[in-house]
Amino acid sequence: MKVLVTGGAGYIGSTATSILLDRGYGVTVLDDCSTGHAESVDARATFINGSILDAATVRKALAGVEAVLHFTAKSLVGESVTKPEIYWNTNVNGSRILLEEMRTLGVKRLVFSSTAATYGEPKEIPITENSQTKPTNPYGASKLAVDYMITSEAVAHGLAAISLRYFNVAGAHKSARGWLTEKHDPETHLIPNILRASAEKPLKIFGTDWPTADGTCIRDYIHVVDLIDAHIAALDAAQPGTHEIINLGSGGGYSVKEVIAAAQSSVGHAIPADIAPRRAGDPAVLIADISKAKSILKWEPTRDIQAMVSDTWESFH
Ligand code: UFG
Question: Where in the chain is the domain with CATH 3.90.25.10?
Fold first, then answer.
Protein backbone atom coordinates (compact mmCIF):
# COMPACT_ATOMS: atom_id res chain seq x y z
CA MET A 1 0.00 0.00 0.00
CA LYS A 2 1.26 3.49 -0.82
CA VAL A 3 0.78 6.07 1.93
CA LEU A 4 1.08 9.87 1.87
CA VAL A 5 2.81 11.17 5.01
CA THR A 6 2.13 14.88 5.38
CA GLY A 7 4.67 16.52 7.66
CA GLY A 8 7.07 13.68 6.93
CA ALA A 9 10.16 15.85 7.52
CA GLY A 10 9.21 16.50 11.15
CA TYR A 11 10.08 14.55 14.28
CA ILE A 12 7.04 12.26 14.29
CA GLY A 13 6.38 12.20 10.52
CA SER A 14 9.97 11.26 9.62
CA THR A 15 9.82 8.40 12.14
CA ALA A 16 6.55 7.22 10.58
CA THR A 17 8.08 7.37 7.10
CA SER A 18 11.10 5.31 8.08
CA ILE A 19 9.07 2.63 9.89
CA LEU A 20 6.46 2.40 7.11
CA LEU A 21 9.21 1.88 4.51
CA ASP A 22 10.85 -0.80 6.69
CA ARG A 23 7.50 -2.61 6.78
CA GLY A 24 7.09 -2.61 3.00
CA TYR A 25 4.75 0.36 2.48
CA GLY A 26 5.41 2.82 -0.34
CA VAL A 27 5.67 6.39 1.01
CA THR A 28 5.28 9.87 -0.45
CA VAL A 29 6.24 12.70 1.90
CA LEU A 30 4.74 16.20 1.61
CA ASP A 31 6.49 18.82 3.72
CA ASP A 32 7.44 22.47 3.16
CA CYS A 33 10.30 22.19 5.66
CA SER A 34 9.13 25.30 7.51
CA THR A 35 9.73 23.44 10.76
CA GLY A 36 10.81 20.02 9.44
CA HIS A 37 14.20 19.04 8.03
CA ALA A 38 14.71 17.72 4.48
CA GLU A 39 17.62 15.55 5.67
CA SER A 40 15.24 13.68 8.01
CA VAL A 41 13.23 12.33 5.05
CA ASP A 42 14.16 8.72 4.28
CA ALA A 43 15.80 8.54 0.83
CA ARG A 44 13.50 5.64 -0.14
CA ALA A 45 10.44 7.94 0.04
CA THR A 46 9.20 10.18 -2.77
CA PHE A 47 9.71 13.65 -1.31
CA ILE A 48 7.60 16.62 -2.40
CA ASN A 49 8.92 19.80 -0.86
CA GLY A 50 5.77 21.90 -0.91
CA SER A 51 2.88 23.30 1.11
CA ILE A 52 -0.30 21.59 2.21
CA LEU A 53 -1.97 24.95 1.52
CA ASP A 54 -1.36 24.54 -2.23
CA ALA A 55 -4.11 22.30 -3.65
CA ALA A 56 -2.18 21.45 -6.84
CA THR A 57 0.81 20.28 -4.79
CA VAL A 58 -1.43 18.20 -2.53
CA ARG A 59 -3.03 16.62 -5.61
CA LYS A 60 0.40 15.75 -6.96
CA ALA A 61 1.41 14.22 -3.60
CA LEU A 62 -1.73 12.04 -3.58
CA ALA A 63 -0.90 10.33 -6.90
CA GLY A 64 -1.19 6.55 -6.50
CA VAL A 65 -1.86 6.84 -2.76
CA GLU A 66 -4.42 4.70 -0.89
CA ALA A 67 -4.14 6.23 2.59
CA VAL A 68 -2.89 9.37 4.32
CA LEU A 69 -1.11 9.85 7.64
CA HIS A 70 -1.68 13.56 8.28
CA PHE A 71 0.98 15.03 10.59
CA THR A 72 1.41 18.51 9.08
CA ALA A 73 0.64 21.12 11.73
CA LYS A 74 1.81 24.09 13.67
CA SER A 75 2.12 22.76 17.23
CA LEU A 76 3.45 25.35 19.66
CA VAL A 77 0.85 26.15 22.29
CA GLY A 78 2.39 29.54 23.22
CA GLU A 79 2.78 30.67 19.61
CA SER A 80 -0.83 29.69 18.92
CA VAL A 81 -1.96 32.27 21.47
CA THR A 82 0.05 35.13 19.93
CA LYS A 83 -0.33 34.13 16.25
CA PRO A 84 -3.63 32.20 16.05
CA GLU A 85 -4.09 32.97 12.36
CA ILE A 86 -1.17 30.69 11.46
CA TYR A 87 -2.83 27.83 13.37
CA TRP A 88 -6.23 28.28 11.72
CA ASN A 89 -4.56 28.46 8.33
CA THR A 90 -2.07 25.59 8.45
CA ASN A 91 -3.99 23.25 10.73
CA VAL A 92 -7.58 23.86 9.66
CA ASN A 93 -7.30 25.21 6.12
CA GLY A 94 -4.49 22.76 5.31
CA SER A 95 -6.63 19.85 6.50
CA ARG A 96 -9.63 21.17 4.55
CA ILE A 97 -7.59 21.26 1.35
CA LEU A 98 -6.24 17.77 2.02
CA LEU A 99 -9.74 16.34 2.58
CA GLU A 100 -11.03 18.03 -0.57
CA GLU A 101 -8.24 16.63 -2.72
CA MET A 102 -8.60 13.18 -1.15
CA ARG A 103 -12.33 13.25 -1.95
CA THR A 104 -11.71 14.34 -5.56
CA LEU A 105 -9.13 11.61 -6.12
CA GLY A 106 -11.03 8.90 -4.21
CA VAL A 107 -8.44 8.43 -1.43
CA LYS A 108 -10.61 7.06 1.33
CA ARG A 109 -8.40 6.29 4.33
CA LEU A 110 -7.02 8.84 6.83
CA VAL A 111 -5.17 8.78 10.15
CA PHE A 112 -4.96 12.25 11.73
CA SER A 113 -2.62 13.57 14.45
CA SER A 114 -4.96 15.04 17.01
CA THR A 115 -3.89 16.03 20.51
CA ALA A 116 -4.70 15.91 24.19
CA ALA A 117 -4.81 19.71 23.92
CA THR A 118 -8.36 19.28 22.52
CA TYR A 119 -9.51 18.35 26.05
CA GLY A 120 -8.14 21.43 27.82
CA GLU A 121 -8.06 21.45 31.63
CA PRO A 122 -9.36 17.96 32.50
CA LYS A 123 -12.29 17.42 34.85
CA GLU A 124 -11.42 13.74 35.26
CA ILE A 125 -8.24 11.67 35.24
CA PRO A 126 -7.62 9.49 33.30
CA ILE A 127 -9.00 11.31 30.26
CA THR A 128 -11.23 9.21 28.01
CA GLU A 129 -12.35 9.99 24.48
CA ASN A 130 -15.74 10.94 25.97
CA SER A 131 -14.25 13.51 28.33
CA GLN A 132 -15.21 17.13 27.76
CA THR A 133 -13.34 18.90 24.94
CA LYS A 134 -12.73 22.50 25.94
CA PRO A 135 -9.34 23.57 24.56
CA THR A 136 -7.55 26.35 26.39
CA ASN A 137 -5.53 27.60 23.41
CA PRO A 138 -5.90 28.05 19.61
CA TYR A 139 -3.61 25.07 18.94
CA GLY A 140 -6.00 22.68 20.69
CA ALA A 141 -9.03 24.46 19.21
CA SER A 142 -7.66 24.16 15.68
CA LYS A 143 -7.07 20.41 16.11
CA LEU A 144 -10.56 19.96 17.57
CA ALA A 145 -12.02 21.81 14.56
CA VAL A 146 -10.24 19.36 12.26
CA ASP A 147 -11.60 16.42 14.25
CA TYR A 148 -15.12 17.78 13.63
CA MET A 149 -14.33 18.30 9.95
CA ILE A 150 -13.16 14.70 9.61
CA THR A 151 -16.28 13.34 11.35
CA SER A 152 -18.53 15.12 8.87
CA GLU A 153 -16.40 13.97 5.93
CA ALA A 154 -16.70 10.35 7.08
CA VAL A 155 -20.48 10.62 7.47
CA ALA A 156 -21.11 12.47 4.22
CA HIS A 157 -18.56 10.88 1.92
CA GLY A 158 -17.61 7.50 3.42
CA LEU A 159 -14.07 8.37 4.51
CA ALA A 160 -12.48 5.74 6.78
CA ALA A 161 -10.81 7.85 9.46
CA ILE A 162 -9.13 7.67 12.83
CA SER A 163 -7.91 10.65 14.88
CA LEU A 164 -5.19 9.78 17.36
CA ARG A 165 -5.05 12.15 20.32
CA TYR A 166 -1.43 12.23 21.42
CA PHE A 167 -0.40 12.94 24.96
CA ASN A 168 3.35 13.64 25.44
CA VAL A 169 5.39 12.13 22.62
CA ALA A 170 9.04 11.48 23.49
CA GLY A 171 12.03 9.29 22.62
CA ALA A 172 13.75 8.80 19.29
CA HIS A 173 13.96 6.20 16.51
CA LYS A 174 17.18 4.53 15.44
CA SER A 175 16.68 4.01 11.70
CA ALA A 176 19.16 2.26 9.39
CA ARG A 177 20.30 5.78 8.36
CA GLY A 178 20.78 7.08 11.89
CA TRP A 179 18.69 8.62 14.64
CA LEU A 180 15.44 10.46 13.96
CA THR A 181 14.83 12.74 16.90
CA GLU A 182 13.41 16.03 18.14
CA LYS A 183 15.04 19.06 16.49
CA HIS A 184 12.67 21.86 17.45
CA ASP A 185 13.73 25.49 17.46
CA PRO A 186 12.77 26.78 19.94
CA GLU A 187 12.71 23.56 21.99
CA THR A 188 9.90 23.68 24.54
CA HIS A 189 9.61 19.98 25.45
CA LEU A 190 10.72 18.67 28.80
CA ILE A 191 12.97 15.72 27.91
CA PRO A 192 15.19 17.51 25.33
CA ASN A 193 15.43 20.47 27.69
CA ILE A 194 16.50 18.19 30.56
CA LEU A 195 19.15 16.52 28.41
CA ARG A 196 20.54 19.85 27.16
CA ALA A 197 20.61 21.50 30.60
CA SER A 198 24.01 22.76 31.74
CA ALA A 199 25.45 24.72 34.65
CA GLU A 200 25.34 27.83 32.42
CA LYS A 201 21.80 27.11 31.18
CA PRO A 202 19.98 25.04 33.81
CA LEU A 203 16.60 23.43 33.20
CA LYS A 204 13.68 25.53 34.39
CA ILE A 205 11.15 23.49 36.38
CA PHE A 206 7.87 25.30 35.74
CA GLY A 207 6.38 25.23 39.23
CA THR A 208 6.85 23.04 42.30
CA ASP A 209 3.60 24.12 43.94
CA TRP A 210 1.18 22.04 41.85
CA PRO A 211 -1.37 19.84 43.64
CA THR A 212 0.63 16.64 42.99
CA ALA A 213 2.66 14.40 45.32
CA ASP A 214 5.99 16.13 44.60
CA GLY A 215 4.54 19.49 43.51
CA THR A 216 5.50 19.20 39.83
CA CYS A 217 3.21 18.57 36.83
CA ILE A 218 2.38 15.04 35.76
CA ARG A 219 2.23 14.03 32.09
CA ASP A 220 1.63 10.80 30.17
CA TYR A 221 4.71 10.14 28.01
CA ILE A 222 4.60 7.81 25.00
CA HIS A 223 7.59 6.63 22.97
CA VAL A 224 7.50 7.83 19.35
CA VAL A 225 8.02 4.27 18.04
CA ASP A 226 5.04 2.98 20.06
CA LEU A 227 3.08 5.95 18.70
CA ILE A 228 3.89 5.02 15.08
CA ASP A 229 3.01 1.36 15.71
CA ALA A 230 -0.43 2.62 16.72
CA HIS A 231 -0.69 4.66 13.48
CA ILE A 232 0.05 1.61 11.36
CA ALA A 233 -2.57 -0.36 13.28
CA ALA A 234 -5.00 2.54 12.73
CA LEU A 235 -4.42 2.42 8.96
CA ASP A 236 -5.85 -1.11 9.01
CA ALA A 237 -8.52 -0.50 11.64
CA ALA A 238 -10.23 2.50 9.99
CA GLN A 239 -13.71 1.63 8.71
CA PRO A 240 -15.52 3.36 5.78
CA GLY A 241 -18.00 6.02 6.88
CA THR A 242 -16.64 6.01 10.43
CA HIS A 243 -14.42 8.44 12.33
CA GLU A 244 -12.96 7.01 15.53
CA ILE A 245 -11.15 9.22 18.04
CA ILE A 246 -8.54 7.37 20.07
CA ASN A 247 -6.19 8.53 22.84
CA LEU A 248 -2.52 7.60 22.58
CA GLY A 249 -0.43 7.64 25.71
CA SER A 250 0.97 5.05 28.06
CA GLY A 251 -1.94 5.21 30.49
CA GLY A 252 0.30 6.32 33.37
CA GLY A 253 1.96 9.52 34.43
CA TYR A 254 5.35 10.86 35.50
CA SER A 255 6.03 14.10 37.31
CA VAL A 256 8.67 16.53 36.05
CA LYS A 257 10.88 15.49 38.98
CA GLU A 258 10.44 11.80 38.11
CA VAL A 259 11.46 12.45 34.49
CA ILE A 260 14.52 14.33 35.75
CA ALA A 261 15.40 11.34 37.96
CA ALA A 262 15.05 8.94 34.99
CA ALA A 263 17.31 11.23 32.93
CA GLN A 264 19.94 11.39 35.66
CA SER A 265 20.33 7.64 35.57
CA SER A 266 20.76 7.74 31.75
CA VAL A 267 23.30 10.56 31.64
CA GLY A 268 25.10 9.56 34.84
CA HIS A 269 25.20 13.00 36.43
CA ALA A 270 22.87 15.42 38.18
CA ILE A 271 20.72 17.64 35.91
CA PRO A 272 21.26 21.33 36.72
CA ALA A 273 17.80 22.73 37.38
CA ASP A 274 16.21 25.88 38.78
CA ILE A 275 12.70 26.32 40.08
CA ALA A 276 10.79 28.76 37.88
CA PRO A 277 7.23 30.12 37.99
CA ARG A 278 4.38 28.04 36.57
CA ARG A 279 4.07 28.20 32.77
CA ALA A 280 0.81 29.77 31.59
CA GLY A 281 -1.75 27.25 30.39
CA ASP A 282 -0.17 24.13 31.96
CA PRO A 283 -2.69 21.76 33.58
CA ALA A 284 -1.42 19.97 36.72
CA VAL A 285 -2.06 16.41 35.51
CA LEU A 286 -2.72 14.87 32.09
CA ILE A 287 -3.06 11.09 31.88
CA ALA A 288 -4.76 9.16 29.08
CA ASP A 289 -7.20 6.32 29.39
CA ILE A 290 -5.87 4.09 26.60
CA SER A 291 -8.39 1.26 26.78
CA LYS A 292 -9.94 2.26 23.44
CA ALA A 293 -6.54 2.12 21.71
CA LYS A 294 -5.95 -1.32 23.20
CA SER A 295 -9.30 -2.69 22.06
CA ILE A 296 -9.68 -1.08 18.61
CA LEU A 297 -6.04 -1.03 17.54
CA LYS A 298 -5.00 -4.24 19.34
CA TRP A 299 -2.01 -2.20 20.50
CA GLU A 300 -0.04 -1.73 23.71
CA PRO A 301 2.84 0.65 24.40
CA THR A 302 6.01 -1.30 25.20
CA ARG A 303 8.70 1.34 25.83
CA ASP A 304 8.96 3.00 29.25
CA ILE A 305 10.16 6.43 30.39
CA GLN A 306 13.71 5.12 30.81
CA ALA A 307 13.76 4.04 27.13
CA MET A 308 12.36 7.43 26.05
CA VAL A 309 15.05 9.31 27.95
CA SER A 310 17.95 7.04 27.00
CA ASP A 311 16.98 6.93 23.29
CA THR A 312 16.74 10.72 23.21
CA TRP A 313 20.10 10.97 24.99
CA GLU A 314 21.76 8.57 22.50
CA SER A 315 20.17 10.40 19.56
CA PHE A 316 21.73 13.69 20.71
CA HIS A 317 25.26 12.20 20.72
N1 UFG B 1 8.44 21.60 31.63
C2 UFG B 1 9.37 22.16 32.50
N3 UFG B 1 10.47 22.73 31.94
C4 UFG B 1 10.70 22.77 30.59
C5 UFG B 1 9.74 22.19 29.72
C6 UFG B 1 8.61 21.62 30.27
O7 UFG B 1 9.19 22.15 33.71
O8 UFG B 1 11.73 23.31 30.16
C9 UFG B 1 7.25 20.95 32.20
C10 UFG B 1 5.95 21.58 31.73
O11 UFG B 1 5.56 22.63 32.59
C12 UFG B 1 5.01 20.38 31.77
C13 UFG B 1 5.90 19.19 31.45
O14 UFG B 1 7.23 19.63 31.73
O15 UFG B 1 4.52 20.22 33.06
C16 UFG B 1 5.82 18.74 30.02
O17 UFG B 1 5.98 19.88 29.18
P18 UFG B 1 6.17 19.77 27.59
O19 UFG B 1 6.33 21.17 27.07
O20 UFG B 1 7.23 18.77 27.28
O21 UFG B 1 4.79 19.16 27.10
P22 UFG B 1 3.31 19.72 27.31
O23 UFG B 1 2.66 18.76 28.26
O24 UFG B 1 3.23 21.14 27.63
O25 UFG B 1 2.79 19.65 25.80
C26 UFG B 1 2.39 18.50 25.18
C27 UFG B 1 2.58 18.61 23.68
C28 UFG B 1 1.71 19.72 23.12
C29 UFG B 1 0.29 19.52 23.56
C30 UFG B 1 0.22 19.41 25.06
C31 UFG B 1 -1.16 19.18 25.56
O32 UFG B 1 3.92 18.87 23.40
O33 UFG B 1 1.78 19.69 21.73
O34 UFG B 1 1.05 18.33 25.48
O35 UFG B 1 -1.62 18.00 25.06
F36 UFG B 1 -0.46 20.55 23.17
Answer: 173-220+251-284+302-315
